[in-house]
Specification:
With about 400 residues, the chain is of the alpha/beta class. It has helices spanning about 40-60, 75, 100-110, 150-155, 170-180, 205-215, 225-230, 235-245, 260-265, 265-280, 285-305, 310-320, 325-330, 330-335, 345-350, 355-370, 375-380, 385-405, and strands at about 10-15, 20-30, 65-70, 90-95, 115-120, 135-140, 165, 185. An eight-stranded mixed barrel has the order 1-2-3-4-5-6-7-8. Strand 2 (about 20-30), helix 1 and strand 3 (about 65-70) form a beta-alpha-beta unit. The radius of gyration is 23 Å and the shape is elongated. The two termini are about 45 Å apart.
């Protein structure tokens, strides 16, 4: 089978610092018809990385940030990694790489050229210790190393000038514990989950904002009502017009009112843009959380279209609102009853295992974004379609974020 007909399935996972700001993305990839990235042949692995980093483009994949890419022993010794831009790529040495003299020599050469080297899934033993002097970054899977062993491990690493990254951080409590241990970076979707505080209720401003969000995606929303919602929020009105002028430069005439914007871009598109602008008002949350919502929304919409669903706007809404609990720091079960959403949207957001089409597509999207391609496929979606939808969604979200910030 030719390379053209054998695509790379690709996702990415954010890596953040102690302020929850993104510093890079680990690329999760698998070539079609290959069991997993770790089981690829050298030729398949090299082609996959080349496709991901060259054909697709680093800017589309990770924007201004760095790409963290897994490299096997055979790939290290292939002398092909020089092709990747050293300022944009972090080479993650997989845990099963043997510390042979050849491997050490090649890691030393790559590091001397300016490449950043990370040791993935690090556990101190006779195999990993010889590689530490070549590392700039040590990644520790906190699900595999008991917490009580971490201080001793840090003490052993103290003589090496390495930074520490905690991966598989799934809760805010874990993030705070490893922040207290002076870890530098964190990987995992802990910030995409609510930080539940007992007795917390929505503020008046947040409740009003959420109700506006849900109303924007109601089936019976009219042009007059949308215009009224936007006009009543002065800041939203100004930002929306500014966004449209930035993102829709080819409009046939000057857009100086919400009514003109509605006529040009349509009620559904304008409602979606207003939603993004309103969600971005949660200033105490990482920007990446809103970005995840944007990617999920567009990917849900594109996948629904590929499955022949007629009302893809509803899938967009489910994806967009899927991070609302994290934005509000409230469980969905407490949040959604306050909103006038349709029954099937409520069900998809409240009951992740239900069988309606909205939930199935959202499950597939969530699995794909975590690099769990098999689970995504088990939801009845084509991985080829999911692959295209994901790339389109990331590109759309990136372009939209730039226009929102203009």
């Amino acid at each position: 089978m030719s390379d053209v007909s054998c695509p790379v399935y690709l996702a990415r996972q954010p890596i953040v610092d102690g302020r929850k700001e993104v510093i890079g993305y680990e690329l999760l990839y698998r070539r079609a018809f290959a069991p997993s990235a770790g089981e690829m042949s050298l030729a398949e692995e090299a082609r996959s990385l080349a496709s991901a980093l060259v054909e697709i483009g680093l800017n589309e994949l990770v924007g201004k940030h760095r790409a963290f890419v897994n490299v096997s022993e055979s790939l290290i010794l292939s002398h092909t990694l020089d092709a990747f831009p050293r300022s944009r790529v972090v080479l993650e040495v997989l845990e099963h790489v043997r510390p042979t003299l050849e491997v050490q020599a090649e890691l030393g050469r790559l590091r001397s050229l300016g490449y950043t080297i990370a040791l993935d899934d690090f556990i101190w033993n006779d195999l990993t210790e010889p590689l530490i002097p070549y590392a700039d970054l040590i990644k520790i899977d906190i699900s595999q190393v008991p917490f009580e062993e971490i201080p001793a491990l840090k003490t052993m690493l103290r003589e090496y000038p390495v930074k520490l990254l905690a991966e598989r951080v799934e809760t805010h409590e874990e993030f705070e514990r490893f922040c207290d241990l002076d870890f530098d970076f964190f990987q995992g979707y802990f910030f995409a989950k609510p930080q539940i505080v007992e007795g917390r209720a929505l503020t008046v401003n947040h409740l009003a904002l959420v109700r506006l969000l849900s109303r924007l995606h109601s089936d019976d929303l009219t042009l007059d009502e949308l215009e009224g919602i936007i006009a009543s929020e002065v800041q939203l009105n100004v930002r929306l017009l500014k966004f449209i002028k930035s993102a829709y430069m080819g409009l046939p005439s000057k857009v100086d009112s919400i009514r003109k914007a509605l006529l040009f871009v349509g009620i559904k598109t304008l409602a979606a843009i207003a939603t993004l602008l309103m969600m971005s008002q949660f200033t105490n949350k990482p920007d990446e959380l809103v970005f995840i919502a944007m990617v999920r929304a567009k990917m849900c919409e594109r996948l629904a279209s590929s499955l022949g669903e007629q009302d893809t706007d509803r899938h967009f809404t489910v994806g967009m609102l899927s991070t609302l609990d994290a934005l509000m720091d409230m469980p969905m079960a407490e949040l959604l009853p306050q909103l006038p959403l349709s029954e099937d949207i409520n069900e998809a957001l409240l009951k992740p295992d239900c069988d309606n089409s909205l939930a199935k597509v959202l499950r597939a999207v969530r699995a794909y974004e975590e690099g769990d391609f098999d689970t995504a496929s088990s939801e009845g979606v084509s991985l080829a379609h999911a692959n295209v939808a994901y790339r389109q969604a990331v590109a759309w979200a990136g372009q939209t974020r730039m226009a929102l910030a203009a």
